[in-house]
């Protein structure tokens, strides 16, 4: 029971720190099929669809903050709050949250995932899709 409390405290603390960072640094979600300025410059796009209230979604907010910190400029990272933007959730075809969608620089959907997706798994998926991701120190 004690370890469950510790894990819960860590998740809550990470959420309290990560949510403002992600919301501040995330770009407004674009409509599928419309290129963002960053995508037009040849960057792949990672779209997270969720809320700021569900526990797995809060974990993903922390993951997005980690990606933005470790891999700045490597990809466009977007967050769509499906409670605030239900029409976008419909356009993306998302019924379960958290959901992540990977887009190529020309805005083609490459991969879709549902549930919590760790940062290292996201980076590995980008590499598998042909987009090498070098951490900040290696650039």
Which SSEs are present, and which pair or pack?
Layout: H1 2-25, H2 37-40, E1 45-50, H3 55-70, E2 76-81, H4 86-92, E3 99-103, E4 109-114, H5 119-128
Helix pairs in contact: 1-3
Task: Summarize the model shown.
The protein has 139 residues and is α+β, with helices and mostly antiparallel strands. It is 44% helix and 17% strand.
Describe the structure.
The chain has helices at residues 2-25, 37-40, 55-70, 86-92, 119-128; strands at 45-50, 76-81, 99-103, 109-114. With 139 residues, it is α+β, with helices and mostly antiparallel strands. It has a single domain, classed as Glutaredoxin (3-Layer(aba) Sandwich), CATH 3.40.30.10. α1 packs across α3 (55-70). The termini are far apart.
Output the helix-strand order: HHEHEHEEH
Give the biggest beta sheet. Answer: 4 strands, mixed
Low-confidence stretches: 6-40
Structural class: alpha+beta
The best one-word shape is globular
Query: Could you tell me the number of beta strands?
Result: 4
The proportion of strand residues reads: 15-25%
